[in-house]
Amino acid sequence: MERFIQLVTVLLIFAFVLFITFFTTRWVAGFAKKQTYNKNIEVVESYRIAPSKFIAIVRTGSKYLVIGVGKDEISKLSELDGESIDFSTDSSMQAIDFSGIIEKAKQRLGKNKDIDH
Q1: Which of 7, 80, 95, 109 has the lowest tally of Cβ within 10 angstroms?
Q2: 57 and 27, same structural domain?
């Protein structure tokens, strides 16, 4: 009986720790989201050109800047007008249909099982 009480006590402590962790994580995430929200600065697009080097299009106010971002430096490369930027999404970057992939895998596995028997 004593072991059962110890088990229940450990489970209650574990549940309490999970409860505190869950709400602390939500609170920190909400706080971080409020800190990073800014109406005047937005990274429109970035492209990695080396392991620690990027080219980025950044909107600051109503201006668009092309900047180079390195490990220890940021350089302004040029300024763009809003009309020259293509905001459309690339058709090759469509969302992946995981349910379709799983169905195809099931069908292939089903065919392989029929061949083995």
Answers
A1: 95
A2: no
Domain assignment present for 18: yes
SS3 86: coil
Asked if residue 72 lies in contact with residue 85, where contact means CB atoms within 8 angstroms, the answer is: no
Beta-bridge partners for 87: none
Same domain, 45 and 77: yes
Task: Give the domain range for residue 47.
Answer: 39-87
DSSP 3-state assignment of 89? Answer: coil
Mean pLDDT, all residues of the chain: 84
What does the alpha-carbon distance between residue 32 and residue 35 come to, in Å, rounded to a whole number? Answer: 5
How far apart are alpha carbons 16 and 9 in whole angstroms? 11
CB 69 within 8 A of CB 54: yes
Residue 12 lies in a domain: yes
Which pLDDT tens digit goes with each residue over 37-87? 667 888 888 999 999 999 999 988 889 999 999 999 999 999 998 777 877
